Amino acid sequence: xxxxxxxxxxxxxxxxxxxxxxxxxxxxxxxxxxxxxxxxxxxxxxxxxxxxxxxxxxxxxxxxxxxxxxxxxxxxxxxxxxxxxxxxxxxxxxxxxxxxxxxxxxxxxxxxxxxxxxxxxxxxxxxxxxxxxxxxxxxxxxxxxxxxxxxxxxxxxxxxxxxxxxxxxxxxxxxxxxxxxxxxxxxxxxxxxxxxxxxxxxxxxxxxxxxxxxxxxxxxxxxxxxxxxxxxxxxxxxxxxxxxxxxxxxxxxxxxxxxxxxxxxxxxxxxxxxxxxxxxxxxxxxxxxxxxxxxxxxxxxxxxxxxxxxxxxxxxxxxxxxxxxxxxxxxx
Length: 332
Known about the structure:
two-stranded antiparallel sheet; globular; 11 helices; eight-stranded parallel barrel; TIM Barrel; alpha/beta; 10 strands
């Protein structure tokens, strides 16, 4: 297992991360019991994974509880990332990014995870009702109290990320260390605005749904004969351009054959060779799925193969990107 620095911090995290969205009885993505969750954690740690990602809302808070149980006395060996924002109760203040909810939510997460500190506390999605200054000050106080070590955000547009960084820098508060976002060969949209921001500001990128909801597993076909029991057959998320995705899958399958690897391994290997990626979150339901994922760092794609994948997955030109790409200095 290789390790990378978490953004501009000195914290080293594994380039593969075990996600826990499958833990518990979630309506669409969860479904695995405590024994399976513990087996996945055991195998991940054995393989050298030290970053575990969860959220207070996964399976109705059950995922955090299961992760805490699975870790037991191994808490000191791992880096736990959790999230706050979505509803964990029926009350009017049981969701959002107000100071009140954040302070209540972190206590619940600490209790369920059986720990005194959350290593990376992330804002799950934008809260347009709460002033950003209120949210960031609450996070700063959590860092100062020792209940949180680093902070990050998920699913934020580039302008809001930059606005938050500017506020934190101006006030001397803890700034985001990471952004968690969807990124895959089937959906490269973050390359338009977020990727340049990550490079400019030195933020780490944690990738969720690297297979685009299982679409890049190699099991889905154009004829619609989708694998029985696959999550995407009942929960078509995240949205992608299906025709482009199948063109990517065709190219991935050819490249996988040359490496004697699975299509999944090629999809993950591509992400690991992108300079903006810090860690790729794996969402396995079974240990054998995790075993396959763990082989992806051993697949090294050549420049020619990377070029083929880039062509197959290319984004359509969009303003102002196509304007900025023109060599205007030579044309005026």
